[in-house]
Specification:
The protein has 333 residues and is mostly beta strands. Helices cover 10% and strands 40% of the residues. It has two domains: 7-11 and 227-319, OB fold (Dihydrolipoamide Acetyltransferase, E2P), CATH 2.40.50; 24-222, no CATH class. Strands 2, 3, 4, 5, 6, 7, 8, 9, 10, 11, 12, 13 and 17 form a 13-stranded mixed beta sheet that branches. Strands 1, 18, 19, 20, 21, 22, 23, 24 and 25 form a nine-stranded mixed beta sheet that branches.
Length: 333
Amino acid sequence: MALASAVLTAACSDTTGSRGTPQFSRQITFPDFKNTLLGLPVNGAARVKVELSPHGLIAREVKVQDPLDVTSHERVESRVTDVMLSTGGEQGILTLEPGFQVSFTQNTKFAAGEVALTLQQFVDQVNAALATNPRVFLPVEAERSPASPLVLGPGDPFPAAQLDLEDEVRGPELHININSANLVEPGVGDCTVATLGASPLGCLRLLGVTIGVDHTTEFEAVLLGVVETRFEGVVDCNTLSVTSAHEGSFSLVGQTTMIEIVAATKLELESGDDEQLADLAAVQAACAASPPQMVHVDGEGIPGMTAGTIEATEAEFEVEEQEVAPEAVEAKG
């Protein structure tokens, strides 16, 4: 079987920033995320996307966005579980899953799809849905301009400038500015196993709700001015260096560029094929087999700290099937 050719190409981004420029991101650790917030200047902010599972208090994903995004509109997507209107009917509070508080006033713009609503019409639609049996939690998207203040207090409600009832939302999902004041240490307040249902590494206090992060939470950060590279080929076993199951380096057959696997590299196991290799220890074992197995790798990365290296952001390893030479058959006459 001929060796698969090695490929190194610049990858196109499938995401863009608020200004339409290509953006790439890399996985980071929770300590990296904390250091980002702790390192902000006085009165500074970081724009983050926080994605939750539908019925939990543990973040599924936390992504640090482009620093320029701190001046763009903040957004909250979720479903309405309660609404309270003031006695005068001039302002109110929405409660969204899993408890986020959103405030509104007569100056808020209301809509249902493309149809503009008054404050009272909006409240009536929400109350009508909540009065059904079983109750219906309407999807809603709230927006505000973060000019004043740039960062809301951890317990502050989200002051909506716009409230739109939607057919569906991806939420609970937040696109908001935060800083170190939003961090909560494990064991403090509601940042506990008893409240969250899981052992947290730490928490974020957002819109009046304590959101936990644990080992299942994915952390990412946007990389500015970085071209992401896609690589694909056969691992050159002679160059394989393994420090641990999740740290090491190798080159591809026919290439000199070293590909580095680091702690933040996401090792893909999505297809579930038997040929897939879980980590570098499995790759090393495949290379050490007799005869050595061919290991195919497919992934993406960014320029490493050293010239001629790529730091993999994600990679997938699998054993390639090798053709078996046909057995010789002795002719008998």
